[in-house]
Specification:
Length: about 80
């Protein structure tokens, strides 16, 4: 069951939605507008060394300085 990122074209709210059976959201959870658009999601990963410590994450390549999130959905 994939989680997709969406953005409302009316209020600019970004949100994630668990897609069941291939059906996405009908409306924005904030303003209830039907004008929503699926966003391109960033792939998240963590690389670990032999002792299990995280050595890098996909967020470390983020254009946001100091960002440690695995997705930009909550930033905008």
């Amino acid at each position: 069951m994939p989680i997709y990122e969406y953005a409302c074209q009316d209020c600019s709210k970004s949100f994630e939605y668990l897609v069941l059976g291939g059906k996405g959201p009908d409306t924005c959870p904030k303003c209830k507008s039907p004008r929503i658009k699926q966003q391109m999601s960033a792939c998240g990963f963590h690389s670990k060394n032999s002792s299990g410590q995280t050595t890098s994450t996909s967020a470390s390549a983020s254009s946001c300085s100091g960002c440690s999130a695995s997705s930009c959905a909550g930033c905008h």
